[in-house]
């Protein structure tokens, strides 16, 4: 029997945080965000040695540039999945502010924890899972 494709049913959208900071090596997260397109592959990497938060999960582009982090509550949940070997995959859903001159850019990603590459949502690229403030 062949593999059944998930068709994105297990995918969800998450915003990143910390996109406006530069990296320790001097690379600009904002510049890297300008180069991204919807569907570009991202890597979610646990940083247990992070001085600010041992539960941190960093977000890296395919070029190896950190563009931000998961919010702490998401990092605890998703980081624990990564630690237990779950196949967590992410892609760029959209870059917020990309069409606004001088805007600080933000990242929205599409995530799948079932081993599949996430799919971009059709017609609703603006939908993001965020808690009410």
UniProtKB/TrEMBL annotation:
InterPro entries, A to Z: HIRAN
Pfam families noted in UniProt: HIRAN
Name of the protein in its database record: HIRAN domain-containing protein
Gene3D superfamilies: 3.30.70.2330
Entry superkingdom: Bacteria
All copies of domain HIRAN, residue ranges: 17-117
Keyword Acyltransferase assigned: no
Coiled coil (residue ranges): none
Transmembrane domains' residue ranges: none
